[in-house]
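Repro case for the chain-ordering regression, as requested:
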Amino acid sequence: MSKFDPGLRDEIIAAIPNLRAFAISLSGSVDRADDLVQETLLRAFGNISSFRPGTNLPAWLFTILRNLFRSEYRKRRREVPDSDGAFAATLTTNPDQNTHLDFEDFRMALDKLPPDQREALVLVGASGFSYEEAADICQCAVGTIKSRVNRARRRLGELLAIEDIGDFGPDKTTRAVVVAGERV
Amino acid sequence: MSLGGSMSGKEKMNQEQSGGASASAESLTGEHMSEASGSTLGSDIQAKIGQHLRAMYDDVVRQGVPDRFLDLLAKLDQPKVGDGPDGEGGRS
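-- result from build under test --
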C-alpha cells in the first residue's frame, strides 16, 4: 500500500533533475545541491497535504528548495565559494576544447552576478518558468523578476563582450592551449 | 535566438500537468520574444548567453535522478506500521 498518490510521486521524481540544476546554480556546489534537493523532498512529502492538486508542482518544489537555501544561506553564508564552479564540475563531456573554454568564460561571468539576478535568470532562462511563476517562487513582484533578468543579461553581455575581444587576438589557439593546459 | 526554443524539460513537465500550466507556457514564449526583440543588447551575445545557460543547466538535467533520491522516495513511501515482508503484497 503506497502512502502517496503514485501520479504525484512520479511527477515529483520527474522534477528532480531540474531541482538539482537549480540547486547547483544557487549553492555553487554539487554536494550541497544534492543535500538541498534531499531536504526539499523530505519537506515536500512531509507537507504534501498543503499542495493543491492541479496547481504547479514544479513551482511548488522550487519554492521549497529556494526557501531552504535562503534560510541556510542566512545561517552559514556561502563560506567557501567553490573555486572550480559547480556547473563546470558537472561538464563531463565536452570534446571540443574551444566550446569548453566558452563555457568556462560563461560560468565565470555567471558567478559574478548577484545571487538574486542569477536566480531569476536561471528560473526564466533555463528552468523554463514564466516570469509570473518565477515571481511566485521568489516571492516578489513580476516586475522585479523582469528587471533582475534584464540586469543579469545586460551584465553577462558586458562581461562576455569583453571576453570576445580577447578571443579575436591572433593567439587564440595558443591561448586556448595554454589555458587548457593550466586547467588539467 | 528565442529562449523558448529548447525548453524541452519544462515543457514536458507542463504538459504532464493539467490545464493551467500550458497557459503560462504560452505567455512565457510570448514574453521571451518581445524581450529579445526589444533588447538593445547585441543579439549575438544574448543568444550565446541563452545557449550557454541552457547547456549548463541541461547538462545537469541529463544526469537524471541519482539513486540516492530514488532510494529516499522508496523509503518515504513505505508504510511505517505493519512493515513486514508480506506488507508489500498489495502493491501494484
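Ordering looks correct now. The mean pLDDT of chain A is 81.
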